[in-house]
Amino acid sequence: MTEVKEQLLTEHKINVLLIDDQPMVGEAVRRMLAGEDDIDFHFVSDPTKAIPTAEELQPTVILQDLVMPEIDGMTMVKFMRVNSKLKDIPLIVLSTKEEPTTKAEAFALGANDYLVKLPDRIELLARIRYHSKGYINLLQRNEAYEQLRESRDEMRKELAVAADYVTSLLPDPLKEGDIQADWRFIPSASLGGDSFGYHWLDDDHFAMYLLDVCDHGVGSALLSVSAMNVLRSQTLPDTDFLKPDKVLEALNDSFQMDQQNNLYFTMWYGVYRKSDRTLTYSSGGHPPALLIAGGEAKQLRTPGMIVGGMPDMTYTSDSVIVEPGARFFLYSDGVYELKKVSDGKMWEFEEFSGFMEGTAGELGKPIDQLIAHTRELQGRELYEDDFSMVEFVFA
């Protein structure tokens, strides 16, 4: 993972630029600001050099006279406000008299303040500091936003790498044999903790499993991968992988949430015995798997707590006979827990189950039909949670 570093915001000193054709005004303002250690003062008397000087200095506030030779002060205000480098810098216009119509025009063109020159020193300092503070806050806010954007982009890169890593560990589809399998895995934008697998334990027993870690992000994905790896390599100590309830108990003991950054997972684990077509299964807090035969869906789930929630938990197993040609779906809750764009309500599980009963086609097509339907239901392509589903067909 990318190391997260604390980034400090840039400290900005108050930087004043006075634009006035009268050197005596420049000297008067310089004396007013003299002795103020937090203020740097700059003066330009040639209005034709005002824009390039301001671009170079990047002041925190500009004081600008409205009456100057060679250029009209109001025109100068316009130039300041259409210049991409200067448009946000506070601009205080200076005039020789208080004229409501002149003030209204200056404000309409984008001036931030209006002073009759020469103002009282205390008032001038107060206005300079007030406008500079607001502009410095804007600069720091923009800087913080840019840091956040960069951090977000880095996190997105990390999540994309993690999603690719999880995908690389998923099993290849099985297109031939006594059991065929195909799957779809669509990571959410924040990447959840879904992973799944299947493999032959011996010539007669086929294991299948799917787990879903709580929360999102790289940490959840890594825990999911760790659990999947011990299942795939069968490295849980003193565990009979032919007994689903014992597998969940061993996982629960090995992945206690207080040792996993308070992360836990739900899981479904099953073993199909080819010789007598028996599917034995156990689940911990996970949605029921769907076994569809004759157009009807049977929900396969056993009572059991989340995996990793409490030590020394006991899980139970159940079994079912699988008819030839039956379809079996293993999935995470991200495939059906979505909000319908039509009425803002959640799609109910029974609606999801009913939809799956009506799917048909070659291996993998029912999942594609579900993806198309759920994207239409929620009105967008991406999912709030990982979309993970595996389809098995039993010969």
TrEMBL record:
Q: Give the GO terms filed under biological process for this record.
A: phosphorelay signal transduction system
Annotated SMART domains = PP2C_SIG, REC
The transmembrane residues are: none
- InterPro entries with a match to the protein in the record: Bact_Sigma-Reg, CheY-like_superfamily, PPM-type-like_dom_sf, PPM-type_phosphatase-like_dom, Sig_transdc_resp-reg_receiver
One Pfam family matching this protein: SpoIIE
GO molecular function of the protein, one example?
Answer: phosphatase activity
Sites of the modification 4-aspartylphosphate?
65
Ordered alphabetically, the record's keywords are: Hydrolase, Phosphoprotein
- Please state what the protein is called: Response regulator receiver modulated serine phosphatase
Look up and give the organism this protein is from: Maridesulfovibrio salexigens (strain ATCC 14822 / DSM 2638 / NCIMB 8403 / VKM B-1763)
